[in-house]
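Lecture 7 notes: from sequence to structure.

We start with a single chain of 126 residues. Read the sequence below before looking at the structure.
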Amino acid sequence: QVQLVESGGGLVQAGGSLRLSCAASGGTLSPYALAWFRQAPGKEREFVAAINWSGTFNIDYAESVKGRFTISRDNAKNTVYLQMNSLKPEDTALYYCAAKKFMLTLRRTQDYYDYWGQGTQVTVSS
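Now the structure, written as tokens:
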């Protein structure tokens, strides 16, 4: 069973950047689709980005982060990253990484994912 631990969150001014990391233990991430979700206070958890590997990288982004966020993975380090640039106050949320084994078609619905981290807080000040 895979365990996921996020890191890299913090407080940043609007327009700034952060890079989140999600490190896995208990198994290799190679066969897993990996995703980032976020949840702002009083709101439902929402999809941010996802990546899998099936010979080539398949990547999907929520419209709200497209062009600003970049998801990547390093299977050798068992880690998935979320580079966040041009941050806005509305990006403030608790960010979670999630994993699903053998997901060939990337999904934006959290119910598809079996493993979750505890989250890392991102706060963007105006």
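The chain is about 0% helix and 55% strand. Keep this in mind for problem set 3.
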